[in-house]
Structure formats: structure tokens, C-alpha cells
Amino acid sequence: MKEIHYQAIVEEVSEMCKRANYDLGDDVYTAFKKALSAEKSETGKEVLTQLIDNADIAKAERVPMCQDTGTAVFIVELGQDCHIIGGSLIDAINEGVSKGYGEGYLRGSMIYNPLNRKNTGNNTPAIVHIELVEGSELTLHMTAKGGGAENMSAMKMLKPSDGMEGVKDYILSIVKVAGPNACPPLVVGIGIGGNFERCTYLAKKSLFRSVGERNEDPAVAELEEELLNKINRLGIGPQGMGGSTTALDVKVEVESCHIAALPVAVNLNCHASRHQTTTL
Amino acid sequence: MQKKITLPLTDADLDSLKAGDRVLLSGTVYTARDAAHKRMTEQEKEGIPFPIDVAGQVIYYTGPTPAKPGEVIGSAGPTTSGRMDLYTPRLLEKGLKGMIGKGYRNEEVKAAIKQHRAVYFGAVGGAAALIARSIKAVEVIAYEDLGTEAIRRLTIENFPVFVINDVHGGDIYEQGVAQFRQDH
């Protein structure tokens, strides 16, 4: 049994929050450069140039790339032979978020209650999903998920008879409706299957994968490529002002579901696809 | 095509600006987002005037990150404007001449932009560290208790925006997408 101390998690989470907001990942940065060379719209090129400059400034000056420093979302892979000591895992994550967002001059965007809307002041609570895995390691995957793109996300329980075409049409319709609001170029996260709540989790989970990384299942990988191509033909472009880069990538996760069901969830991510992983 | 404009916007500026134009703005703008718009509107119904005279002014929809010591402001990119649509026609009626944000406006707002001769600018969503460099001074004007959502007066210099909706009914979200769409 491996023991991991509460405080070690606090420190690690705090650093992850800062890094996520200051250091745009190489995967996204490379995708910006690739998009800039392929983009047909002059306006779109100007937007992509600003985004590259912005990422450079954020990294060099240790400031957030976006003022929306996001909801802190964690997927925790907790080894079943790992024991957290000194406090609870959830408390440690929340304390780490509070510390990181405070020390890092990151914006607190969370409110106590959607109906009375008072800011908690430290960006807690984090949204934490725990997956129990074999082994004795604790792996933390974190994303700082922006509100604009999250607001344009959606899920639908399709009919099995809607089939593959129904799934594709639905995904495209959500990207179209989102247009400029979701801060394109997007990373489009898709869950297909599971049940009502599992499907949306799959869509979110897909966004933790690096831009450019395909699903291991060749058929799903092919669907990701096809959707990326179709989305980029919509013409929405960088920031929705027209162009050939509407999405940097599409991620699809597929799981089993009920014979009566065909759930599809589309979790949109803005171009600031911020994700961090660390293992304790 | 890039234009430089010093605020406040003149009638000539408003006539000349066309959807899709790239503009560098200098002068004064006020920040306000969801909670500030809601409070201004609710207070007006109770007979309390707006804390800023919006006539001739430009509002920037942003909720900046906290400023680091020695810095004027934190990162300060645009937030989604559509959430302010409910309140915007009243502000335009009161003489508001410009808005900076990102994303769609509804039909009512677009009609009010034409009717009251105003302009909707889009800044690049997410380019918050870059945009912060064009903000030279900041002063909290009202609703300090709202924190990041307080109303601030910003002095800006060469703040980069695009014209989204102009006084002539132009809309770059419609025109630009129509130009590049390949799915028909």
C-alpha cells in the first residue's frame, strides 16, 4: 500500500492550475501554427496570429492566456492500492485549486449557488471525477474549462434508427449553433453511448486527450477525421468571422449503451484547450 | 484594411465602419458584464440612475483576472456578448454607441444597433494576455462588491477589434461564414 500525503496533492494541484493557465500545451500551439499556414481567410489568419502572440505573452510573463481561467475539472485515476493520508482527496484538490488560483492571480469564476450567484472567491469547488484503477499510483488529469464554450455544449438522446447519419448531423448542428460564441477554432469533444450522465462525461473526458491524438479504435479515429473535415467545411472559421479553421480537432469516445438508446453529447472547448497531467 | 479610431465615436466614424473592418481603438471604455448589467437595469426600474452616463460611450464585456502587483490589470479578453442581449436595447436607447465582446447578438440587439446608430466590435476571445497590453489605466467606478464583474473605466491604446455589426446592417458573422462555407 502506497501512502500519499494530503499536502503533496495540494501542492501538485496548485502548480497544475497555474501551468494550465499560463502555458498553452505544445499540442495546441502546434495546431495554431498548422492552422495559420492552412487558413484561407485573412481575418482568420489575423485571429490565429493574435492567439499565437497571446500564448507567447502568457508563457513568458506568467499570466493567464484567457481571463476565463475556467472551472477546474479533474479526472483522478486512483490506484486501488494507494492510500491518501492526512485528509480527504476531494478536500486536497479543492485546497490546491484555491491555493493555485490565488497565488497565480487567476480569476475565481465559481459561485456558491446558480440561483443567488455569489462568487466563492477562490474558484472552488472543483469538479472531480474519480476512476478507480489497478495499482498504487495517483494520476491527476486537470483541465481549466472555459465557460463560453461550455455554455454552447449539448446532449441529446437520439433514436437508434437515427443511426450514424443522425449522430453526425446532430454534432454538426451543435457546432453551427455555437458559431463564434464558443471561441473557435474549437476542440470538439464527443461522447456516444453510455447513458444520460455517462455520455456527457465521455464527451468531457475526450477533451483531456491531446490535440492531434486519435482514438485507439481505427473506426472511431476515422469518424474523428471525418467530423473534423466536415466541421471545417462549415466556414465558421477562427472566432466565427469566416474561414477554413473552425476546429483544431475532434475527439470521440464511444461506450456500450441500452438497446433503446443512442445518447450523443457534444462538449465544446474553445481554442484554449488547457490540460495537465501529473502522477504522484 | 486597418483603421485607428480615437473614442468617443463620431458620426463619421460610425458611418465609415463596416462589418469585417479591423480597428485599433484608443480612449476610454467601461467594463460591464452579466451582474453589472442586471443590477443597472434593476436599479433603473427602482428609479436609481445608471452609475455611468452611457451616452456616447463604449462598453467592454470582460471580467479580468486579478492584476499582479505592479500591473495595471490582469488578463482581460472579451466574454460572450449574447448574455447581455436582454439589457442592451435599453442601453442603446440611452445613447450607448459601442460594445466590445464576442459572439452573436440577437435580432432585437442588431435592430437596435441600426436604429440608434451604434457599433458592435468583436475582440479575439481568449487573447486576454495580448489585449491587456493595450489597457493603460484602470479605475473601479461602481459595484465594487461584484469583484471581477464591477464596472471599471479603462484607458486603452490601440486595442485590437473587428467590426461585427455596423450601422448599415452588416454582420461579419453572416458574411464571413457565407464566404467560406463548403457544405452546400
UniProtKB/TrEMBL annotation, chain B:
Pfam families: Fumerase_C. Residues 5-175 form the Fe-S hydro-lyase tartrate dehydratase beta-type catalytic domain. InterPro entries: Fe-S_hydro-lyase_TtdB-typ_cat, Fe-S_hydroAse_TtdB_cat_sf. Keywords: Lyase. It comes from the Bacteria. Belongs to the class-I fumarase family. PANTHER family: L(+)-TARTRATE DEHYDRATASE SUBUNIT BETA (PTHR43351), L(+)-TARTRATE DEHYDRATASE SUBUNIT BETA-RELATED (PTHR43351:SF2). NCBIfam families: PRK06842.1, ttdB_fumA_fumB. This is Fe-S-containing hydro-lyase. The lineage of its organism: Bacteria, Bacillati, Bacillota, Bacilli, Bacillales.
